[in-house]
Each structure stands twice: as structure tokens, then as C-alpha cells.
Amino acid sequence: MKARQVYVPVLAVIVFLVLWEALVWAMGWPNYKMASPSDLIPAYEKYWELFLVMGWQTLWRTVVGLLLAVIFGIALGMIMGFSRVMRDALYPLLVGFNAVPKATVVPIVALMFVGAHDFNTVLIAFMISFFPIAVSVSIGLSTLEPEYRDILRSLGASQATIFWKIALPKTLPEFFGALKVSVTLAFIGTNLMEIVSPHGRGLGALFDSGKTNSDYPLMFAVLIALAFLGIVLYYVVVALEKIFAGWADRTV
Amino acid sequence: MENLIDIKAVRHSYRTASGPLPVLDGLELTVPEGGFVAVVGPSGCGKSTLTRLVAGLLIPDHGEVSVHGSRITGPRSNVGMAFQNPVLLEWRTILQNVLLPLEIVPTKLSKAEGEERARKLLALVGLEGFENKRPSELSGGMKQRASLCRALIHKPEVLILDEPFGALDAFTREDLWQIMHRVKAEEPFTGVLITHDLRESIFLADQVVVLSGRPAKTQFVLDIPDTGIRTLDHLYTPEAATMLNTLRHQIEIAQGRAPAEAAA
Prior knowledge:
The complex is a heterodimer of chains A (252) and B (264). By secondary structure, chain A is mainly α. In chain A, 83% of the residues lie in helices and 0% in strands. Chain A contains nine helices and no strands. Chain A is globular and about 70 Å long. Chain B is of the alpha/beta class. Chain B has two domains: 1-78 and 158-181 and 189-264, 3-Layer(aba) Sandwich (Rossmann fold); 85-156, no CATH class. Chain B contains seven helices and ten strands. Chain B has helices at residues 47-54, 94-99, 111-124, 140-152, 170-186, 198-204, 238-255; strands at 3-16, 19-32, 36-40, 62-67, 70-71, 79-83, 158-162, 190-194, 207-211, 218-223. A six-stranded mixed β-sheet of chain B has the order 6-7-8-3-9-10, sandwiched between helices. In chain B, strands 2-1-4-5 form a four-stranded antiparallel β-sheet, with helices on one face. Chain B starts with a strand and ends in a 9-residue tail after the last helix.
């Protein structure tokens, strides 16, 4: 990695924070209207332990939800990618399911599994994030040129061999594109559960307590912490993409 | 010489929404061991169906396709295929691409021996020094040459070429024709070449088969006299002109643009 790839984004973040600070100062906004970056530092100092504990709770539940979404999304994508009939059957259901706002599902899930907070949160993170993965895998598999299949099939290769040697690696770039979308979606899912149906866990609950106590800098501090976690997870996916699908990048 | 490939009275239809669509009807084709037959015919006449039959990817409705006297009932590992689309795997190097068939077919070659053979084939087609490049770094003609090496790595009994040079520019194509002759001298194979290019057919093959329009049957067979080592100059001899004229006339008949003569 070149130095430029580090200092350019860091510089951009600093510029963003300075502009934010300047805007709040210039407009003379009070804390409860819009907190400024300098208000956030005391909030982090005061609650750093809570940020660590709850940040971790949000992170692990998001990651577990995302992993389930990857497993289920790939499986569903394979079914739809290889079978025309299954694609025709499942697509309307899938689109309909995805169209239902997850905020409306949260109370239903919370009632269905009362008290199972971790499970509920993981479930919502999973439900909101598997759709892009399933669609991308199914498109990747169904658009595989028949010649690729024929090359291996004429040598007597089994369907499983064709999948492992060609279909799967060829779909990886699309898969990672979808995973980048799913990462942020999974965070949205986790926080929906934590905020709409708070149970004292996760950054969403911290946000909610900031709201109840009119601690506006704390609310903003939670938002920035969430953004930070999102960035970290996103770049984990980027690193994985580089390892497993770096060959698809033509800009190097 | 014994016939390696025998196609007898093959009839085949595809099932479509509007009923069966016959593509082949009365197809006869024989290729002796070591022979190289070019198949030409109007667009959409079922030439690619023919390659899938020989590869065992398709079983005909009627008639018989046999290799070495035994009837084909499914894919066997002793064919090599190359298409107009080189279909190299982008995530593998050229060398790894060429080695792909050895990962699937049973082979007596050790890993090192297989690699040595792949390097030898790549050198034969002029791709020495490109072993560790990715397909995206190669030109169209180079990709096609790598694809040819992949088709030959496991010493297939039958090499099936489905318009392998169709998407290349004229100069690259002539280049590859000469490479094909070099490859055949070094690595003898029995081949079926599907092509739209009549000059290509008489330059590469020792027999040209003209298929009729759909449903395709064998309409005409032209034997190319053995003139020893062929060079591009052979394409500009009066003999070549006569052969090309004959073939072009046959294609016109196949397209229905010229009346079939009683004794063509």
C-alpha cells in the first residue's frame, strides 16, 4: 500500500471534521440542535467504557448476522442460479420480502422471541443483508458462458467440480460487490433492533439512552462510532476481496 | 487407415416452445486416425451441434456417433475443445490455465511432468515467457493459442475446434493457421474444425465437408490433395482457386441461392 492511500483518506476525514466544526460555529447552533466534533470528545471521555462494551455488542451481532447472510445468500443464490424453475419461483417472494420495511418487522420479531435479544438482533441484521448476496450469486452463476461449462464437461467433470473450479471463482467479484452493500445493511439491521426495541445492549441502546437523557453530544458520538465500525468492517471486506478476487481488478 | 470418428445417419432436433426444431438430418462424417476434417456450411446449420455430438455433450435422437468403434454415450475425457471464445480462467495464470484438464482427467503424468509438457506446448505456439501472465494481459490471438494448448495438454484422441479463429483479424488468423500446422507436426492429433472461412478450411484440413442448410445433412465432401508442407502461398495457386470456387458454389446451394445440380 502506498503512503498516498493512507494520507489522502485521513486528510479527507480531517477536512470533513473541520468543516463540520466551522459550520456549527458559524451558524451558532446550540448543542441540542447540532453537536460539533469538539463536543464529542468529552462524550467519549465520559463514556469510553460503555462505548467499548456496547460497540463490541453491536459489532459481534452484526458480524454474526452478516456471516449467516453470506451462508444463506450463497445457498439461495446457487439454487436460483442453477435452476431456472427455482429462479422463477423464488424471485417474486424474495423481492416482496426485501420490500417490507425492516423497521416494521422489528416489533414482530421482538414479540415472537421475547427476551432473546441477541438472537433477535442477529436475525434482523441477517434478514436485511442477505438479499444483495443471493441476487449477485444467482446472476453470477446464471450468466456463466456455456463454453466454460462445456470445456470441463467434455472432460467428464462433475457438476460439483464445475462449480468449484469455475462457477464459484468466476462469481467472486460480483459476490464481493454485494458483500460491501450488505456490510452497511447489516449495521442498519442491528441498530434498528437496538433502537426500535431497546434492551440495554449495543450502540443503539446507548443512542437511545442519550435521547432519554437529552445528552445530544452522546447521540452524535454514537453515530460517529457506528460510522467508524462500518468503515472498519467495510475495509475488512475490501482486504478479503483483494485476496480472493484481486485478479478481477483491472485498474492496477 | 481405421476411422477414428464415425458419424452415421445422425438426426437430431432441439425442443423449442413451438415444437421440435430439426437441426441435423442425415449427417454422415468419418475422420480417419490422424485426419483433420473441416466442416463448413451456412450460419445456423448445426455445425456447433456437431461438435457437441462428437464431444459426447449431446446424444443424438437417431443414428450413431462412435469414436474408435465404440458408441458415444456421454462425455469422455479423451477430447480437447477450443471455441471462438477462448474461455480462459481470469484468476489463473496462462500456465495454470493450460494445466486445467490435467486436474480433471486421469493422467499418468506427475505434476512436474505435466508442467513441463505445458511449457513445451506454450513454447510451440510461441507463448514462451507468458507462462505466468494473466489472460487479461494477452491479446486475442495469444489467448486463442493458450486455449489451443489447454485443448492438447492431456493428449486427447480428438481435437474439436469450433471456429477458434473466427474472432481474430486476418493477419493474426493466418499466423495461427501456420502455428496449427506446426502443432500438428509436433503433436499429431485427429481433428474436427468448424469454420466459416473457406480458405482456412482448405489450408488446414485434409478433407472439407459441406453441410446443407437446416436441417443439415452432408451435402458435399472435398478431399484436399496432400501437397506436403503447406505455406500461405498454396492459397494463391490455381488449384486452390478451383477448390475455393467449388466450395463456394456448394455453400450457395446449401443456402438455397443456387439450384442443386443432378450430379454435383
